[in-house]
Amino acid sequence: MQLFRNKHHDFDPLWHAQAVLLIVVVLQLLLPTDLTLFPKPVLPALEVLCMVVLQLVTPKQAVYESRFRRLVVMALITLVLVANISSLELVLHALFTADKNNAVQLLLSALNIYITNIVVFGLFYWEMDNGGPGARRRDDAEGRDFLFPQQNLGYHLKSKWYPTFFDYLYTSITNGTAFSPTDTLPLSRRAKFLMGVQAVVSLLVVVLVAARAINVL
After folding, report:
1. CB-CB neighbours of 213 under 10 Å
2. 89, 123, 132, 188: which could form a disulfide with 145 (CB 3.0–4.6 Å)?
3. How many CB atoms lie within 10 A of CB 157?
4. What pTM value is reported for the model?
């Protein structure tokens, strides 16, 4: 995800996604060492390294069309997702031996995992939908993974509307809190699968982790 000032309104402001990803890095650094799959600094360091490498090697003119950029971004997001789900597994395991001394830590860890889950899936949706943030600007609706309300209006907007990162982040937030689609509908099977996985992870965090930690308190 290359960071630059974009003068063309046809492109997504990529710094939005980068800023949110940096929040994920901070959240991962705040997780206790015994609740992380890898040594604590490893994954955040890899994320920052990938962002720096993409900043240097991805041509600005082809940032949305670069297959190399998209491959690295998707691999990075998948790695963060696997690490986050693994942290959830470790938290669930820790609940069986939890007492009042570490209940607060479990609550904070659950909140950390919950927020990271929302951000990671928002990035996944943004990068996956209809070929990515550049390809979906070609007026080709055949590859859509999501249907936003603005794309299904009975009247035309003043200018052509395209979803940006924050639209996908909002979709991730609503799916992670309502455990189901709200105003944005999944169209493809992969979108339905990912939204299902996100809802299950969120449900585990909210119902099992939080309930158990509060019970210990």
Report:
1. 22
2. 188
3. 9
4. 0.79
Cα–Cα distance for residue pair 12/166, rounded to 1 Å: 10
Of 58-62, 79-83, 124-128, 167-171, the one with minimum mean pLDDT is 58-62
The C-alpha angle 188, 193, 197, rounded to 5 degrees, equals 150
| Tokens 């909140």, located at residue | 111
Q: Is 27 helix (H, G, I), strand (E, B) or coil?
A: helix
Q: Which of 132, 155, 149 is nearest to 58 (CA)?
A: 132
Closest CA to 74 of 123, 27, 116: 123
Query: Cα(153)–Cα(161) distance, rounded to whole angstroms?
Result: 11
Check: CB of residue 48 under 8 Å from CB of residue 71: no
184 near 169, Cβ under 8 Å?
Answer: no
Q: How confident is the model at residue 12 (pLDDT cuts 50, 70, 90)?
A: low
pLDDT digits (tens, 9 = 90+) for 109-137: 888 888 888 988 998 898 888 877 767 76
Cα–Cα distance list, 30 to 105, 106, 110, 138 (Å): 11, 12, 12, 41
**Which residue is listed with tokens 């609740």?**
35
What is the pLDDT at residue 172?
92
Q: In whole angstroms, what is the distance from residue 100 CA to residue 158 CA? A: 57
CB 43 within 8 A of CB 79: yes
- Torsions phi, psi for 9 (to 5 deg): -70, -10
Cα 13 from Cα 27, distance rounded (Å) = 23
